[in-house]
Amino acid sequence: MSSRGSRSTDFPMDDRPTRNSIRLPSDAYRDPALTWLVTIATEGRRPTFHNLAFDHAFSTLLHERIAAACADLLLACLMPDHVHLFGILVDGENRP
Fold first, then answer.
1. Domain span at 78
2. Residue 59 falls within a domain, yes or no?
3. Is 1 contained in some domain?
4. Do 87 and 38 form a contact (C-beta atoms < 8 A)?
5. Which of 21, 39, 52, 85 is most buried (CB neighbours < 10 A)?
6. Could you report the per-residue pLDDT of 16-26, keeping only the tens digit for each?
7. CB 74 within 8 A of CB 86
8. Could you give phi then psi for residue 74, rounded to 5 degrees?
9. 59: domain CATH number?
């Protein structure tokens, strides 16, 4: 072990580096002309998505939430420790 201690204590709580915001302006998230890629990783990158029962429950919930959000899921790719989602926002009157 080094004399500096563990990495988690290298910075006092109020001196930790902060991340820059990667968010777009809020209006950009409402543009129905855009296709979105969303990647969701499991906590600690645990291989959660290799469990068929969990995959089914996740898929059911995902489709319910996407429908409620006036969006359409174009493609989903479940990997053992993360999922990629490609989707679009749609106008409620012009849903396919």
1. 28-94
2. yes
3. no
4. yes
5. 85
6. 667 677 777 88
7. yes
8. -85, -35
9. 3.30.70.1290
Hey, which bits of 1-96 come out as E strands? 35-41, 71-78, 82-89
- Note the pLDDT tens digit of each residue in 66-94: 989 888 999 999 999 999 999 998 875 55
Q: Which amino acid is at 64?
A: E
Residue with tokens 């004399």: 3
Whole-angstrom Cα distance, residue 68 to residue 83? 20
Q: In sequence order, what are the beta bridge partners of 1?
A: none
Give me the helices (H) in the chain, please.
52-68
Assess if residue 17 is contained within a domain.
no
Q: DSSP class of residue 19?
A: P
* Cβ-Cβ contacts under 8 Å for 80 (sequence gap 6 or more): 47, 48, 49, 50
Contacts of 91 (CB under 8 A, 6+ apart): 32, 70
